[in-house]
Amino acid sequence: xxxxxxxxxxxxxxxxxxxxxxxxxxxxxxxxxxxxxxxxxxxxxxxxxxxxxxxxxxxxxxxxxxxxxxxxxxxxxxxxxxxxxxxxxxxxxxxxxxxxxxxxxxxxxxxxxxxxxxxxxxxxxxxxxxxxxxx
Length: 135
Fold this sequence. Notes:
Layout: E1 9-12, E2 19-22, E3 27-30, H1 45-68, E4 72-86, E5 89-102, H2 106-116, H3 120-126
Antiparallel strand pairs: 1-2, 2-3, 4-5
Helix pairs in contact: 1-2
């Protein structure tokens, strides 16, 4: 049985690839760029996945630092994704390059990098998973 169930609703009408996304308290558009037949009216699914990984990483680090009382001025992150074909199939590689500004020693910085690997989106990408698509 699932715990912490999160539901997001998506709807695509006749406009090619423009997709309305609704959460409990927000709504926005997703799309693909014109070279793929879309209208580029919002981020594409890969961009949103990377944004989720980057945002979750910096939020997790900041929450931990706040609990410890460590002074962080800012956290910047760039998330990227690449795929490669292997004998076993496709291999996905995600990289988050993070810059933490603040009055921290090397031990604190190392701990924050360790904590970054524990963000929920990171875990969702690396831990065993199950995806069901029902119609």
